[in-house]
Amino acid sequence: MVVELISVGTEILLGNIVNTNAAYLSEKCAGLGLSCYHQSVVGDNEGRLEETLRLALKRSDIVILSGGLGPTKDDLTKEVTAKVFGKTLYEDAHTKERIAGFFSQMRNGQVTENNWKQAMVPEGARVVDNHNGTAPGLIIEENGKTAILLPGPPNEIKPMFERDIVPYLNNLVPEGIYSKMVKLCSIGESKAETLVSDLLEGQSNPTIAPYAKTGEVHFRITARAADEKEADRLIEPVIRYMYRLFGDNIFATSEEVTLEDAVVELLEEKGLTLTTAESCTAGLLAGRIMNVAGASKVYNEGYITYSNEAKERLLGVKHETLESFGAVSARTASEMAEGAAKAANASASVSVTGIAGPDGGTGEKPVGLVYVGCQVNGKIRTEEFRFTGNRAKNREYAVVRALTVLWEQLMEA
Amino acid sequence: MVVELISVGTEILLGNIVNTNAAYLSEKCAGLGLSCYHQSVVGDNEGRLEETLRLALKRSDIVILSGGLGPTKDDLTKEVTAKVFGKTLYEDAHTKERIAGFFSQMRNGQVTENNWKQAMVPEGARVVDNHNGTAPGLIIEENGKTAILLPGPPNEIKPMFERDIVPYLNNLVPEGIYSKMVKLCSIGESKAETLVSDLLEGQSNPTIAPYAKTGEVHFRITARAADEKEADRLIEPVIRYMYRLFGDNIFATSEEVTLEDAVVELLEEKGLTLTTAESCTAGLLAGRIMNVAGASKVYNEGYITYSNEAKERLLGVKHETLESFGAVSARTASEMAEGAAKAANASASVSVTGIAGPDGGTGEKPVGLVYVGCQVNGKIRTEEFRFTGNRAKNREYAVVRALTVLWEQLMEA
Question: Is B153 on the interface with A (CB under 8 A)?
Answer without folding.
Answer: no
